[in-house]
Amino acid sequence: MAMNFTENMSQNGSKKSVENSGSIFEIEDILKTLDRPRTINIERNRSFDERSMSELSNCLSPRQFFKDPEYSVHVEHLESIYSPSRRSVFNSPRENGYFESHAMVADAWEALRRSMVHFRGQPVGTIAAVDHSAEKVNYDQVFVRDFVPSALAFLMNGEHEIVKNFLLKTLRLQSGEKRIDKFKLGEGVMPASFKVLHDPVRNNETLVADFGESAIGRVAPVDSGFWWIILLRAYTKHTGDSSLAELPECQKGMRLILSLCISEGFDTFPTLLCADGCSMIDRRMGVYGYPIEIQALFFMALRCALLLLKQDDDGKELVDQIVNRLHALSFHMRSYFWLDLKQLSDIYRYKTEEYSHTAVNKFNVMPDSFPEWVFDFMPTRGGYFIGNVSPARMDFRWFCLGNCVAILSSLATPEQSAAIMDLIEARWDELVGEMPLKICYPAMESHQWRIVTGCDPKNTRWSYHNGGSWPVLLWLLTAACIKTGRPHIARRAIELAESRLSKDHWPEYYDGKLGRYVGKQSRKFQTWSIAGYLVAKMMLEDPSHLGMISLEEDNQKNQVIKRSASWSS
Questions:
Q1: Which residues cross the membrane (predicted)?
Q2: Helix, strand or coil for residue 245?
């Protein structure tokens, strides 16, 4: 059945007739306008983990299917299995209508469409939350990082225009002058968010960006530029259309973003030095220095840029710089940020106050500063990238986003990726609990909370960024699970989310050690909670979607290097 029906949502939720969506949800939109109940019964495809290896053997052998004999899945193999040419065997969710038949997914799409923002008749993004019961503050704005799961959902559903418009509008905002007080920001800084201002007198609309001047703490968003590059690559990969990335404006935008990060300075490490509050954790949480989230996103953005940048007169020198930085960054992160039982045992015995290049304790970390919880937290099998490494400091906290992105970008080796998944399974109650997923673990309490957060009333223990549970992280976990060949972990987490998420009206985050309670200041109908669930569902149903957000390890640029004697004996 083919028909054209136009429905778009403005910021306040009202409908505008603007564009032909052409999606599988046209039927839903028509029935909604007629105020009729939807009754669509279509048989559901079995998801990836329910299909037997014998079914997949028609396409490839089990040994071919798993990159690592036990864990890792080749994205290219997934794409070949689920490619359009094989739809007679594995129909995509878009074709078979499975998502229309699932009440919670239909509810999620309905809520996602209510969050859509339009600028001069075109969809340009989704606002952070559509919660009319709470003060808007800045939740009525389109955040770059928040829009990423929304964009992936739209791409997976064949709705490309909103993603393209978003990429172009944020690029245009990048080119404007950025000032905080008397200080001018770097030309390549991307906005944290923007909003559409309506002038009813002049009947005009303008886009107004926030580069950190209105944020809590007045910190510029380091992650926005990285997410923009990652999303541009996802758009190009999924649509097969490279014309957008090849535009001179996009090429210049990427160069400006990366020039901010790889310019020479006083740094002795290839990692990026950052202030607190420059990413998803946008409040004071002791993540200043070299946070894992920024380093993983930086690595992934560099790899995506390599695929997108033209090697012309303007781009060739930058490409060479990117290659060199990737080589140094991967070595540094895999060597000094990685923690497993063996490494924990080694650094526990470090001596201090060592000098010269032969020092074993390279960063002069004091073993007495190690928190007691980490010794019980570390399983026999498993490991993870710790939160931060800098002079005399190791932040042993687990951060979900950074570790998942490390897997997707192949910053983590196949063995490290498998160990991260081992850790999640071994510490399920701590990291997942009753509502996925902990943004970080463990929470800071008492004196530590007072000193590190500045007595932040929003980041009390097991709440918000301080050990709160964030449903949006579900899509990152699912992608990591599929890439490492463990979709059963994702299915288990999704089932947990489905038990409450829609009934609780899609909260921003949950509180409590197990994530049992809706967050005390959590907005309802939080858009990235909605979109994160949709992306997780669609990706699990059709794992070929993983290709737009995952990068395989580049073995040609990965020379075998042993860690220097200055770090471990």
A1: none
A2: coil
Per-residue confidence band for 214, with pLDDT thresholds at 50, 70 and 90:
confident
Residues 259-296 have pLDDT tens digits of 999 988 888 999 999 999 999 999 999 999 999 999 99
DSSP 278-310: SSSS-S-SS--BS-HHHHHHHHHHHHHHHHHS-
pLDDT in tens, 94-144: 444 444 448 999 999 999 999 999 999 999 999 999 998 888 888 999 999
Q: How far is CA 329 from the centre of its chain?
A: 19
Pairing verdict, β 398-399 and 204-210: unpaired
Residue-wise burial string across 331-362, b where 16 or more C-beta atoms lie within 10 A, e elsewhere: bbbbbbbbbbeebbeebeebeeeeeeeebebb
Which of 84, 102, 100 has its CA nearest to residue 92? Answer: 84
Average pLDDT of the residues of the chain = 84
Token duo for residue 84:
């359009």
- Single-letter amino acid code for the residue at 508: E
Task: Give the C-alpha separation, 351 to 359, whole Å.
Answer: 9
State phi, psi for 122 to the nearest 5 degrees. -125, 140
- Percent of the chain exceeding pLDDT 70 equals 80
Q: Give percent of the chain above pLDDT 90.
A: 68
Instruction: Answer yes or no: are the C-beta atoms of 473 and 435 closer than 8 Å.
Output: no
Q: How far apart are CA 393 and CA 344, in angstroms?
A: 14
CA distance 426 to 377: 9
Separation of first and last alpha carbons in the chain: 68
Type and span of the H or E element at 116: strand 116-119
Q: How many residues does the chain have?
A: 569
> What stretch of H or E contains 123?
strand 122-126
pLDDT given at position 137: 87
Whether the CB-CB separation of 171 and 256 falls below 8 Å is answered with no
Number of C-alpha atoms within 13 angstroms, CB side, residue 346? 14
Residue 335: both structure tokens together? 């060597």
Calpha distance 159→21 (Å, rounded): 7
Phi and psi for 226 in degrees, rounded to 5?
Answer: -65, -45
pLDDT the model gives residue 136: 82
| Banded model confidence at residue 15, pLDDT cuts 50, 70, 90 | very low
Q: What is the mean pLDDT of residues 554-558?
A: 59
DSSP structural state of residue 472: G
Cα–Cα distance for residue pair 481/504, rounded to 1 Å: 26
**pLDDT at residue 48 is higher than 60:** no
In this prediction, residues 418-442 reach a mean pLDDT of: 98
Contacts of 73 (CB under 8 A, 6+ apart): 65, 66, 67, 482, 483, 484, 485, 543
Q: Using an 8 Å Cβ cutoff, are 337 and 389 in contact?
A: yes
Q: How many CB atoms lie within 10 A of CB 310?
A: 14
- How many whole angstroms separate alpha carbon 156 and alpha carbon 223? 23
